[in-house]
Design a protein that fits this description.
Blueprint (H helix, E strand, L loop, with lengths): L1 H5 L3 H20 L4 H18 L9 H18 L18 H11 L3 H12 L4 H8 L3 H19 L3
Helix pairs in contact: 2-3, 2-4, 2-6, 3-4, 6-8, 7-8
């Protein structure tokens, strides 16, 4: 699929998008406001499409795509767009406030736990899917999810 996409096959690139979009969304959601994450997913895949010919091996694609997503999040913050923080919005105007609070708690965790938890809890990816898409071992994903959930529980319970 990756080789076909390198050769300009847009259908193959579309299948790559379908396969990896949730992973990219999770990485971005761990770093940028939720309202901007979806647009940035599109930016990441546009960048990937333009730079795909520079990819040395197909096996490197998932990690390479993760790196593009992380760099795009960094660029987003460098651009310092004015944004509204959850704290500045009156509670009566926040829908799903609990979800925003949990997301904020997840985002405060170490990066490896944060990304893995968002892939699982927000994107609905299974452990094996996360391992396959990110290149982590199944055991690493399991450990990240277990430790991340414990840290999240502690944070939400105020420990």
């Amino acid at each position: 699929m990756i080789r076909a996409a390198v050769e300009g096959d847009r259908d193959a690139f579309g299948r790559l998008y379908e396969r990896y979009a949730r992973m990219v969304h999770a990485i971005l959601l761990a770093r940028v406001p939720p309202a901007d994450a979806e647009d940035l997913v599109q930016d990441v895949f546009m960048t990937a499409m333009r730079q795909l010919r520079g990819l040395r091996t197909a096996a490197a694609f998932p990690g390479w795509l993760c790196a593009i997503a992380r760099h795009r999040a960094i660029d987003y913050h460098r651009e310092s767009r004015p944004s509204v923080t959850l704290e500045s919005v009156p509670p009566e105007h926040v829908t799903g406030q609990d979800a925003f609070l949990v997301l904020a708690a997840i985002r405060a965790l170490p990066e490896s736990y944060c990304e893995t938890l968002i892939m699982r809890l927000v994107e609905g990816m299974t452990g094996p899917e996360i391992a396959e898409r990110t290149g982590l071992t199944a055991d690493s994903v399991r450990v990240n999810l277990c430790r991340g959930m414990k840290m999240l529980r502690d944070k939400l319970e105020g420990k």
